[in-house]
Amino acid sequence: MFNIPCVLMRGGTSKGPVILASDLPTDVQERDAVLLSLMGAGHELEIDGIGGGSSQTSKVAIVSRSESPDADIDYLFAQVMVKERRVDTTPNCGNMLCAVGPFAISAGLVAAPIEGCGWTTVRIWQANIGKVIVSHVQMKDGEVLEEGDFELDGVTFPAAEIKL
What we know:
Blueprint: E1 7-11, E2 14-20, H1 28-39, E3 59-65, E4 73-80, E5 87-88, H2 94-106, E6 117-126, E7 131-140, E8 143-144, E9 162-163
Parallel strand pairs: 2-3, 4-6
Antiparallel strand pairs: 1-2, 3-4, 4-5, 6-7, 7-8, 7-9
């Protein structure tokens, strides 16, 4: 048994855990073994993990403070296969990317204004594709704004908009 701190977040039409890279093993094979166990991969319902039994709910965002002067945080996307025990870090996921900026702010990885309303910019190094993506996150009095009237096809309820 092991403990991995994470935040389950919805990003666009996907959801999954967002995890600090420092809370995972640095060895790729060990990291992937932890992710497979965490999600319950290998069973079509992922019954022994927190995965939701579909490709949209078996995704992981791995986040850390960036050492690059061009980015605030680094983001590695991991697609955990549902029926097979395999992790794929070759694709990108723009849906989960939407969750990364708010997570980074809430986790204290990125400074945000503590008063008023507006947008906070988070520069994200997307490690899977090797590019910086800029995320604009709505804020209110130092907190990430979650409620709003932005509607997205495939998502039941409106929420605050994230601009990439």
